[in-house]
Amino acid sequence: MPALPQPQPQDFDIATVLHALGDPVRLDLLRRLAVDGECTCSPEGVTVARSTLSNHWRILREAGVISVRTSGKTRLVTLRRQELDARFPRLLDAVLDEVDRHADIA
Amino acid sequence: MPALPQPQPQDFDIATVLHALGDPVRLDLLRRLAVDGECTCSPEGVTVARSTLSNHWRILREAGVISVRTSGKTRLVTLRRQELDARFPRLLDAVLDEVDRHADIA
């Protein structure tokens, strides 16, 4: 499978990144990636339909939040943490602090 | 005019706030409020249609980002900075840093 297109850090757009993060399912995916590191496109415990999940990954990838690589027949997803932190300092920390706090309470 | 409904800080939701901020026009409104303090619902230099602007204010208000009060026939908008900073530390700072940087370049 060819590599899926993703923006370069200099093309990251704050409105696009905030929009990508502004959804409860995508925030859950973000938290999993931050905790677990690389994961498959269908992480355990995520109960949304496959096509919906695929759409969420696309929105995150096109915003520059995640990177997708292929390994055999599997697609593996990672958070572009370092690039996001360099481009938008403190943003991911602020979001993940709240998402983690919420996960702890739930 | 009656006060327009807005959430209490304990009901602020991170996904809803990020979604509210994830739009270039709403980010511009946020920057103006952060710089100028209270402003009218039709700030100078904002060129979007009145109904579109009204919709942007509603999304920001319902997320808890702004507060709207009436003075005679005028609606005045303020950023709920203190409440947002208390609920989501560093989030607004991170977003405004980038929005300001972008405004400086433009």
TrEMBL record, chains A, B:
<keyword id="KW-0804">Transcription</keyword>
<dbReference type="InterPro" id="IPR051081">
    <property type="entry name" value="HTH_MetalResp_TranReg"/>
</dbReference>
<dbReference type="InterPro" id="IPR036388">
    <property type="entry name" value="WH-like_DNA-bd_sf"/>
</dbReference>
<keyword id="KW-0238">DNA-binding</keyword>
<dbReference type="InterPro" id="IPR011991">
    <property type="entry name" value="ArsR-like_HTH"/>
</dbReference>
<dbReference type="InterPro" id="IPR001845">
    <property type="entry name" value="HTH_ArsR_DNA-bd_dom"/>
</dbReference>
<dbReference type="Pfam" id="PF12840">
    <property type="entry name" value="HTH_20"/>
</dbReference>
<dbReference type="InterPro" id="IPR036390">
    <property type="entry name" value="WH_DNA-bd_sf"/>
</dbReference>
<protein>
    <submittedName>
        <fullName>ArsR/SmtB family transcription factor</fullName>
    </submittedName>
</protein>
<keyword id="KW-0805">Transcription regulation</keyword>
<feature type="domain" description="HTH arsR-type">
    <location>
        <begin position="6"/>
        <end position="99"/>
    </location>
</feature>
